[in-house]
Design goal:
Mean pLDDT: 94
Low-confidence stretches: none
Number of helices: 13
Strand order of the largest sheet: 2-1-3-4
Structural class: alpha/beta
Strand content: 5-15%
Distance between the termini: 26 Å
Number of strands: 8
Radius of gyration: 18 Å
Helix content: 40-55%
Largest sheet: 4 strands, parallel
């Protein structure tokens, strides 16, 4: 199987190590990974802030870039959610029948990393080793858009050496929500405060998740508090091995 990496602009710009570790993980599992360099933003930011027509060229570019990909995998539930759930709306809004057909063809081939591993490859134990106390934050998009369920937890439970601890009120939003955190700063900060409180209650060394956007939000608060708790994307944990 050959996989095309959809890195997302957020990871590419701010957290390139996530993509590096995703490639390292998949190649360790015997999967060929290609990286279409012409990929850009999926348009989620535009769509979610009311600029829906402005997201049409970005959706058109995405389907053109990945048209020949057998499978598309991304380390972001949020951006995969944009492609799978909102691209049909974007395509319909464009009035372009060819774009509608292209979206219909690409949506079933686009996966978030943990669902690709568990539901496509049928794997749980990917040979990872991570001797740390970890808690998992399920993001809103992973829960309510992609319906990942416990796929990320299945993978984490199989990691050797890990001490995985449950996060209280895990399903509650961290308060990021893209531009929501900027436009509704007070509400976002209150939600973030609750999330960080629950994280600290676990005694975890590491908070992990399927979205670096949420981890950035949570990690910012933890850093300002000097709490000594790190944020690490799931791909980095799953790519880690005892030999590393």
């Amino acid at each position: 199987m050959r996989v095309a990496l959809f890195i997302t602009c957020f990871n590419d710009t701010l957290f390139p190590e996530v993509g590096i570790n995703l490639v390292r993980l998949l190649e360790r599992l015997g999967i060929d990974v290609e990286f279409p360099e012409e990929q850009t933003c999926c348009g989620q930011m535009h769509f979610n802030t009311g600029y829906q027509r402005e997201s049409i060229p970005l959706a058109r570019h995405f389907v053109s870039t990945f048209a020949n990909a057998e499978v598309i995998v991304a380390p972001s539930a949020s951006c995969v959610g944009m492609v799978r759930e909102l691209y049909p709306t974007v395509a319909a809004l464009s009035g372009d029948a060819a774009l509608v057909r292209a979206v219909e063809a690409i949506v079933p081939r686009t996966y978030e990393l943990t669902e690709f591993l568990t539901r496509v490859l049928g794997m749980e134990d990917v040979g990872a080793y991570y001797p740390h106390r970890v808690t998992y934050h399920p993001t809103c998009h992973s829960l309510r858009v992609l319906h990942l369920g416990d796929a990320p937890l299945q993978l984490l439970r199989a990691v050797k050496g890990i001490d995985l601890v449950e996060l209280s009120d895990a399903r509650e939003c961290c308060g990021f929500g893209g531009t929501f955190a900027i436009k509704n700063a007070d509400t976002s900060a209150a939600m973030l405060g609750d999330k960080v409180h629950h994280v600290l209650d676990t005694g975890a060394e590491v908070v992990t998740s399927a979205d670096t956007s949420c981890l950035m939000h949570i990690g910012g608060a933890l850093s300002r508090m000097r709490a000594g708790v790190r944020t690490v994307h799931l791909a980095e944990i799953l790519a880690s091995t005892e030999e590393k």
